[in-house]
Amino acid sequence: MIQILTPLLDEDCIRIIRYLLSSTQLFIQLGKQKSRVFETNKGTLQGDALSPVLFIVYLEATLRNVSNNIPRHITEVIFADDIDFTATDRQLEGTMDKLANTFEKSFLKINTEKTEYTIVRRCDERHEEKWRHTKKLGTFLGDTEDMIRRKSFATFAL
C-alpha cells in the first residue's frame, strides 16, 4: 500500500498513514466476553475513516494492471467498490478468469456469487433484449423500461 501511495502523497502524509497502519491493538468481543488484546499490522480497522479511501486507491492501482490484461473492447465502469466490465459480445465471460487471476495477485477476490453477465446486443424483437431489464446503480439499462419503473414508483408514492 505504501508503495502505491508514495508517488501520490508527500512525506508527512505517508508517515501518518504508516503510523495508522502499524501496531494496531485489537480485541474480540462476543456478547459481554472480551478476548486478550493482540497486535495486528494487517490493513486498517473496519469503520476507520481512512479505510475506504485507501481501499479505493488500492483498487484503482489494481485496475490499472487489469486494463493491461483485457481486450480493448471491454470497458469498466466503477462506482466505489462495484465494478462493471462491459462488452458487446461473449468474450467478457472468458476474460473473467484472467481478471480473477490479476485481482488475486493483489489479494483481492471477485465475488462469483454476485457476478452477473449481461450481453448487450440488438435483437429482432425488443422483448428479447434481456439487457434492458438489467439494473445498474438502481437504473434499468433500457430507457423505456426504466421510465416505466420510475413512473410506477412515483404513482405509488402519491
What is the percent of helical residues? Answer: 25-40%
Radius of gyration: 21 Å
Order of helices and strands: HHEEEEHEEHEEH
Q: Whole-Å distance between the termini?
A: 50 Å
The number of distinct β-strands equals 8
* Order of adjacent strands in the largest pleated sheet: 1-4
Q: Which blocks of ≥5 consecutive residues have pLDDT under 50?
A: none
Average the pLDDT over all residues and give the rounded result.
82
How can the largest sheet be summarized?
2 strands, antiparallel
Number of helices: 5
Strand percentage: 15-25%
Structure characterization notes:
- By secondary structure, the chain is of the alpha+beta class.
- It folds into 3 domains: 1-43, no CATH class; 44-117; 126-158, no CATH class.
- The protein is built from 5 helices and 8 strands, in the order H-H-E-E-E-E-H-E-E-H-E-E-H.
- The protein has helices at residues 2-5, 11-21, 50-67, 91-105, 143-157; strands at residues 24-26, 29-30, 33-34, 38-40, 75-79, 82-86, 135-136, 139-140.
- Strands 1-4 form a two-stranded antiparallel ribbon.
- Strand 2 and strand 3 (33-34) form a beta hairpin.
- It is extended.
What's the short story on this structure?
Residues 1-145 form the Reverse transcriptase domain. Helix content is 40%, strand content 15%.
Which structural traits does this protein have?
single chain; 158 residues; alpha+beta; 3 domains; two-stranded antiparallel sheet; 5 helices; 40% helix; RT_dom; DNA/RNA_pol_sf
